[in-house]
Predict the 3D structure of the following.
Amino acid sequence: MTTVHSVGVPQTGNRFGELAAQLTGTVVTSGEPSWNTARRAWNLAIDQTPAAVVFAESPADVAATVRFAATRDLRVAAQGTGHLAAALPDLSETILLKTERLQSISIDRTARSVRIGAGLTWGTLTERLREQGLSGLYGTSDGVGVVGYTIGGGIGWLARTYGIACSYIRSAEIVDGTGEARSVDAQLDPDLLWALRGGGGGYGVVTLLTFDVQPAAEVYAGSLWYPLEQAAEVLDAYHTWTADLPNVATTAVRLMRIPDAPFAPEPLRGKAFTILQGSILGAEPAQLLAPMRALRPSTDTFRRTTTDAISAVHLAPSDPSPTAGDGFVLDDLPAAARAVVVEQLGAGAETSLAVVEFRHLGGKLAQPDSGGGALTHLAGRYLVKTGNVAPDRHAYARVLKDSAALNDSLRTWAAPRDYLNFREIPVQPGTLFDDDTCARLRNVKNRYDPGSVIVGRQTPSHGPVFQHPL
């Protein structure tokens, strides 16, 4: 297991024997042969060392685990796939509750809704939805868990048309911080439903989630590849192009250095590109894309496909790997800001960042929903994501340093709030939510988890703000 920074100290002993006897699922503790595999996060750079790991087989297992923790001064951190583990606090007195075995799917084609278990990934769900002629508002990787992605916001390749995925949550089944199972919807528990719509998972452990889906549609999706040397030209054109881009197009531009490593595709190893990616709905997508094609890309993969296939556009890794990075939101990317980007990340620049992405916001994403939840929209023009593979502590620290340097250089154009699912280090709650939203989220936390048993990434809590362990 690759180890870059440690979250907690392993605990030994048989204090979890009583819990194991109550569960259908499995309890794994330090010293057992499966310990390193059990505690693994998706990001292999994060060395999760909790007090124990529980693999729940049912909501009853989840409730028993939370009750056990609540009566023994322990905490519980729920984890489906293990994405964004770097945003978790110290886990040394925490049970890491793996929900990956909760795989139920129930699709209501007439109502265009789906009810899914907490362990389901988008890859599994999109395949089942496709069979019913439906599509979810999934992100850029099939391996991401549906529940964590959705309750943290949810922005994918249809976002400018449909908005944030969390706004489509209808109901949930959760286990609160006392171990009580609750049914949550707009009538039964409007405050908790509001918190789950974009406020993250620190208010209870979600075991089932129900949300609306859309009819499957044909999209025009793919990538335009340019040499990295064209970064300034492409960024200038992209800024102009996105100024009046209709809501049917959701796109991003990436500056990307592909490692000269075995996991990279052979023809691309060691090369660098500026890449436009995205999807376009509607009757005349080729005409809409014409200004960017006029820059003479070396490769053009845009084609008509179905909405369930567009996650492949992003070239996201399909397997766990050690990485580092972060994300933030910009109000704009004017000429001065683009010059900073090219200077720090363009051809010839010395940087540890392999990818910097500018994802276009606006459209439905910019429209507040008065009936929504803790996150109803994003106020900003671009969502920025940085990262690289980080096989050791030195590489991890350098990537975070270069990511922070870019953030600092662009701070003049920063939006007031960042996006929960893109912050990969613990931050002040006010970085993500305004004061009123933070206060309301804390009230929900106090009501449903008075003992602060449930650990969630970036969730406003009773105690001090989490600090990054490096």
Observations:
- The longest strand covers residues 218-227.
- The chain is about 25% helix and 25% strand.
- The CA atoms of residues 114 and 240 lie 38 Å apart.
- The chain has three domains: 5-98, 105-215+428-450, 218-422.
